[in-house]
Amino acid sequence: MNLRIVGPTPLPPAVCEALARPMINHRGPEFAAMQARIVNSLKTYFQTAHEILLFTCSGTGGLEAAVVNLLSPGDTVVAVSIGVFGDRFAEIAELFGAQVHRLRFAWGSAADPDALRAKLDELANVRAVLITHNETSTATTNPLQELARAVHERSDALLVVDAISSLGAIHLPVDEWGVDVAVTGSQKVWMIPPGLAMLSVGPRAWEAYARAKMPRFYWDFKKMRDAMAKGQTAFTPGVNLYFGLDVALELMNAEGFENIRARHARVAQHTRDCAQAQGFELFANQAFASNTVTALKIPPGVDGKKWREVLRKEHDTVIAGGQKELTDKIVRIGHLGWVNEADIDACLHAMTAALVYVRAS
Amino acid sequence: MNLRIVGPTPLPPAVCEALARPMINHRGPEFAAMQARIVNSLKTYFQTAHEILLFTCSGTGGLEAAVVNLLSPGDTVVAVSIGVFGDRFAEIAELFGAQVHRLRFAWGSAADPDALRAKLDELANVRAVLITHNETSTATTNPLQELARAVHERSDALLVVDAISSLGAIHLPVDEWGVDVAVTGSQKVWMIPPGLAMLSVGPRAWEAYARAKMPRFYWDFKKMRDAMAKGQTAFTPGVNLYFGLDVALELMNAEGFENIRARHARVAQHTRDCAQAQGFELFANQAFASNTVTALKIPPGVDGKKWREVLRKEHDTVIAGGQKELTDKIVRIGHLGWVNEADIDACLHAMTAALVYVRAS
Questions:
Q1: How far apart are the first and last CA of chain A?
Q2: What is the DSSP code (8-state) at residue A165?
Q3: Which of A104, A207, B154, B324 is the most exposed place for a label (fewest CB within 10 A)?
Q4: Partner residue facing B22 (CB), from A1, A60, A239
């Protein structure tokens, strides 16, 4: 199957093998050694000298962990949103009692650093700014460096970044840009199944942790840090996902971080170029086009659901539809993790063939 | 390796194969069909006609989910505790703002239904009673049927049961005993790696959900129920664990529920008999001995840590130590999931051999 959704992404054979290994004691020395290797490699991709924590959960669990460990009910938070996942991040913070000020931008556009500056100037005591790095729902990458600059220039707010579908593939030097917590998810660039969220936690985040009063148990940063310092985890971890991640990171290290980012940029450009050459129209503002996912407008008069169904049944190719208000307007092609140009060629070819069929039927 | 901790438990080869399958779209029809099969089988083991929800997390996440979906801050809760995991359940509820009254019993004993009756008579408006069915830390199984009877006889409290290390192996008819929410974890009886928590949610629990005010997003029961009704999950699920669970349940269905429970009872009795025959002393009150784990006292003068290290290094056998105040006092042998008498014979034989070595060195 040519699985071209935005995660889970395809698994390299070596990762599949690793996932099938016999269980081990998650409190024994093999696990400790494996976790140390994983954390060590992840620091390279997060470009951080600070702590990395791993939680057994989906990416959304990682976002919830970031919120409840840094904030107290009543805290003022700015949530920058350019799509479904930006809205979700805001909703989590609000649900746990933060005073959330949404800074929303039209779907398909990126966030404007000057608008963020203005919002921060207008509000007092902003405790945290939540930003989605790569908005999966609209295939748009925010100008995070500029947004981060705006945050630090105009406030003491923590910068908390949903990097679930970007980290490892799109440039994001966590320490250099002053990202206090960044969150990613195992089923994206990391080439393993869903079930692990990985977070970097910087020194300012730990200060915030000490005063944060939102309730937390499963997500507790300190419980996890203390356990990881002993080579363990706070609660029983997804052991076979660790096996997979250990091997996936080995593959990534062998390819090299620069090469991985270059490949994602190249494959993304290839996707956009070929899609347009085949007559498709791109959805997002191309100045902020994502290097991990591309959104195409569904051609007028075409039933997007049927198109995807024909693709799946007749061409063994799975792409994503749009979400919420984009449901009948776009389709999305994931190109992250274990992907190259040939996967995209096959996908786009199948899309065109299926389209001919859908239009004729 | 003879992995005889209390989870993760060993994986049957067919499960390993399933874990290595290529990823699929978690919002596509194959996933929906698989989830339907899984839920259908799980209902047999939970012995419930009501809803089953699956969350991507460790067992502890499942306990947190039960607490935050049923309760409001300030609610009166009785937490029955006979060990580490009973204490943890109480701690979670307290941390989210419940008024928790602990009813603790000496470690190695079971809870006394009359003491629970007295506690419920003493308190007004108890909203929930939290009980650990099988206390993994002390290898003791609570008399849940009698405890459940006490709860329903003396109160309208919800009965919330941590059945993480019992469900599927130890008799627990959820509906018949009036268990409102029961929680289990994938790495126990279910023969797959850690990373999924499975919960039954009865009608009284849904009523409680409607009025419960603890904050929840990732754990939200309704979000999950609504998504599962569409063959999906609220957030990206641990897809490869679902592959494994689907196959593991097929194996379990082929063996038959009665046979599985009988096997666990038989292997547990075998463990206790052989351990005693080899001169070991059992830790727990044997009237309440667990059928999934056995705790042995560390013989006087023996360094338990060294004993387990020799076992691991020289005999490729891994057993669990004690937790908290039992750290240097007991070791624990897990006998749940994919286990038979021969695994126990090999383990006990190795334990005796290692003991001779540790004593001599």
A1: 24
A2: T
A3: B324
A4: A1
CA distances to A293, A321, A326, A357, B180 from A306, rounded to whole Å, are 21, 11, 16, 10, 42
Domains in chain B: boundaries: 13-253, 256-360
Task: Give the count of beta carbons closer than 10 Å to the beta carbon of residue B54.
Answer: 23
Q: How close A146 gets to chain B, by Cα (Å)?
A: 30
pLDDT of residue B194: 98
- Minimum-distance CB partner of B97 among A23, A64, A215: A215
Residue from A26, A58, A63, A137 whose CB has the most chain B CBs within 10 Å, to mutate: A58
B233 neighbors A59 (Cβ within 8 angstroms):
no
User: What is the pLDDT at residue A361?
Assistant: 86
Coil, helix or strand at residue B345: helix
- Distance (Å) from the C-alpha of residue A118 to the closest C-alpha of chain B? 30
Summarize pLDDT for B43-66 with one digit per residue, the tens. 999 999 999 999 999 999 999 999
**Which helix (H) or strand (E) element contains residue A184?**
strand A181-185
Rg of chain A over CA atoms, in angstroms? Answer: 20
Per-residue pLDDT tens digits for A186-216? 999 999 999 999 999 999 999 999 999 999 9
Three-state DSSP class for residue A275: helix
Output the six-digit token pair for B162: 């941590």
Please tell me the pTM assigned to this model. 0.98
User: What average pLDDT does the structure give for chain B?
Assistant: 98
Contact B23 A10 (CB under 8 A): yes
CA A130 from centroid of its chain's CA atoms: 14
- By CA distance, what is A96's nearest residue in B? B215
Q: Do B238 and A193 touch (CB under 8 A)?
A: yes
Written as six digits, the tokens of A256 are 């090299």
Cα separation of B260 and B256, whole Å? 6
- What six digits make up the tokens of A315? 């061409």
**Do A56 and B59 make contact, defined as CB atoms within 8 angstroms?**
no
CB B134 within 8 A of CB B170: yes
The answer to whether the Cβ–Cβ distance between A195 and B10 falls below 8 Å is no
A257-360 CATH: 3.90.1150.10
Q: What is the pLDDT of residue B361?
A: 86
**Does the A14-253 domain belong in CATH 1.20.1070.10?**
no
pLDDT tens column, A87-140 = 999 999 999 999 999 999 999 999 999 999 999 999 989 999 999 999 999 999
CATH 3.40.640.10 matches B13-253: yes
Count interface pairs A-B at CB distance under 8 A: 171
Locate the DSSP E strands across chain B.
Answer: 2-4, 51-56, 76-81, 99-104, 126-132, 134-135, 140-141, 158-162, 181-185, 196-201, 293-297, 317-321, 330-334
Residue A217 C-alpha, separation from nearest chain B C-alpha, in angstroms: 6
Min distance B318 CA to chain A CA atoms (Å)? 7
What pLDDT, on a 0 to 100 scale, did the predictor assign at position A41? 98
Contacts of B241 in chain A (CB under 8 A): 193, 195, 238, 240
Contact A61 B64 (CB under 8 A): no
- Judged by CB atoms closer than 8 Å, whether chains meet at B3 and A24 is answered as yes
pLDDT single digits (tens) A237-253: 999 999 999 999 999 99
Q: Complex ipTM above 0.95? A: yes
| Contact check, Cβ <8 Å, A240/B19 | yes
Nearest CA in chain A to B94: A215
Cβ distance of A215 and B22 shorter than 8 Å: no
